[in-house]
Amino acid sequence: MATQYKNAYSTAWDEQPDLLTLDQALDMDMGRANRLYAAHLNRYLLQIYAVLGLDGLDVRAAEGTVLHLADGRQVLDFSTGMGAAGLGHNHPRIVAAERLCHGRQVLDIIKLAPHKLQAALAYNLAQILPDPLDTSFFATSGAEANEAAMKLAERIQTPKGKTKFLCMRGAFHGKTHGALALTTATDVHTGFLLGVPKENVVYVPYGDIDALRRAIGAETGAQGNGIIAAIIEPIRGTACEVPPPHYLEQFAGLCRDNDILSIFDEVKVGCGRTGRFCAFMHEDTVPDIVTLAKTLGGGKRAIGAMVTSRDLFERAYGNRNDCNLHSSTFSGIGETCAVAIETLNTLHEDGLIDNARLMGDYLEARLEALHIKYPRTLLEVRGRGLFRAVRFNFGEDLAAKLVDISSNPLFLTYQTVLIGALARQLFEQHRVLVHFQPGARDMLHFMPPFTVTREEIDQLVDGLDSILARGIPDSVLRFVAGNVKRLVSGGRGKG
């Protein structure tokens, strides 16, 4: 595969580069794919996939909730790219929208004129979101949408002498430099200079309105408070934590009363996952700024959106000199906007938001029944709609049996072994793909597409029931047996 140059400064080739064709890439076996992944991407991430039994996940086709593997197996995807495929994989309406764009040779990129598909998408979001949220900026990810929200808030508030952001402990807002400073769910800061210095961030416990009130008071002096904006996930993503009733209303009210802009990060749960278009719509409140991503791309496109009021946007960028201070080359690509337009129409016309609520209620009921059946093992069921999690009791008795295993660098804590064992058993024995978060290693998360059926939910819950009936130690033994060579070699496995 190596390419030879005539010399280090020449642009001429001794020979043509040995490039893979698209057909070769699509038909590549996983053994070779993993070797290339280890050599040219991230071999340590590949090791983690291998520990979970997923390095051989050779998906040849995907539709709805179902992944069709090369070996003939069918696996249910209850992870959906951490919630990005809310409509399921390759939804027919999304595929048709892409084909329509191809057939009409739709213009994707133009930076010297307005794009009608951007205008249409922004209009649709304004029709769905409550007033005064009517003005959008498009990005390519949730983190970038949050960066856009932060920069807009800074443009408005820093002339007043404000210098700080307020965020929740245990929050996740992204890994770009600015959003990273407001992400506390897990240690992803080490070795990085933060876009917002830690001394410019106020941290508050999630769901504690009194703590929020005290924090704002502590930052308030004779000239007012120094907080630019307060950002919150309406459902805390890492821990699948729903705040107390009316908390979001009180949160937005405190912000409004203290000249603090409120930012609701709906990247993970927005666009219908909770049974309303946005999770904050379960309460009688509206933020100053909302961010969206994941489901907005229909499971096919990378797109994020920051939506705010016309008034705030004008205050930040309201003249010809400043109107393009924040921009991005790939913001609002034509076909991406087309897919997002079709996604919004599909959500509403096909009743998928209602189905997320109905199937979410069914999933909750089935998980609660497991909680009653295994009260010592399952501590609680969390979430709303089709964002659900179960929290396990990984007590000291189990930990004591895993001291040697947890010393392996692949396993940061014994909880990682336990939760990894459960996830691997669900995949290998029951053909269901689920995930867990580094910041909450005692929980399994379930984020199926909004098209999920009762039968598919039954397959997940029945599988989990079977695993719990055998006991967690049984799953751990199977997990360890599947990773003995890797454990003995200190994590130096395939790749």
Explain what this protein looks like in three dimensions.
This is Aminotransferase. InterPro entries: Aminotrans_3, Aminotrans_3_PPA_site, Class-III_PLP-dep_AT, PyrdxlP-dep_Trfase, PyrdxlP-dep_Trfase_major, PyrdxlP-dep_Trfase_small. It holds the Pfam family Aminotran_3. This protein is α/β, with parallel strands linked by helices. It has 2 domains: 59-83 and 352-488, Alpha-Beta Complex (Aspartate Aminotransferase, domain 1); 95-349, Aspartate Aminotransferase, domain 2. Helices cover 41% and strands 16% of the residues. The chain has helices at 22-27, 30-40, 43-51, 80-83, 92-103, 116-128, 142-157, 177-181, 209-218, 247-257, 310-317, 334-349, 352-373, 396-400, 403-406, 414-430, 454-470, 472-481, 484-488, and strands at 59-63, 66-69, 74-77, 133-139, 164-168, 201-204, 220-221, 224-225, 227-232, 261-265, 289-292, 304-309, 378-384, 387-392, 432-433, 435-437, 440-446. Strands 4-12-11-10-9-5-6 form a 7-stranded mixed β-sheet, with helices on both faces. A 4-stranded mixed β-sheet has the order 1-2-3-15. A 4-stranded antiparallel β-sheet has the order 13-14-17-16, covered by helices on one side. It is globular, with a radius of gyration of 24 Å. The two termini are 17 Å apart. Mean pLDDT is 91; it is low at 1-6, 405-411 and 490-495.
